[in-house]
User: Which sequence fits this backbone?
């Protein structure tokens, strides 16, 4: 597992930085407020106005909330799957294969 992002909650959005070997950019998870159908994500991930992915809320065995995150970009060989977890006052984005 590798930490690829750190985020803080600002006005309902999670704002921070996504960093990998090839990506180093400011991004934000914006809450989806019009969730009218099953399967709609809880957050969408943006860099500027470009959407990079989405996050769905889940509960772990201890009942703590985390987010399953799917990241995608035309430069990726395949989408990246990650977990966004609370870490003290903020959130950490963790990638694993």
Assistant:
């Amino acid at each position: 597992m590798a930490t690829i992002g750190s985020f803080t909650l600002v006005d309902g959005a999670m704002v921070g930085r996504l960093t990998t070997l090839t990506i180093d950019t400011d991004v934000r998870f914006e809450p989806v407020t019009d969730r009218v159908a099953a399967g709609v994500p809880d957050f969408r991930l943006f860099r500027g106005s470009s959407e990079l992915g989405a996050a769905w809320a889940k509960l772990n065995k201890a009942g703590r909330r985390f987010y399953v995150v799917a990241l995608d970009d035309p430069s990726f060989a395949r989408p990246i799957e990650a977990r966004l977890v609370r870490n003290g006052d903020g959130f950490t984005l963790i990638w694993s294969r």
User: Anything to note?
Assistant: The chain has a mean pLDDT of 91. The beta strands are 2-10, 13-19, 24-31, 43-47, 50-59, 65-71, 80-87, 90-95.
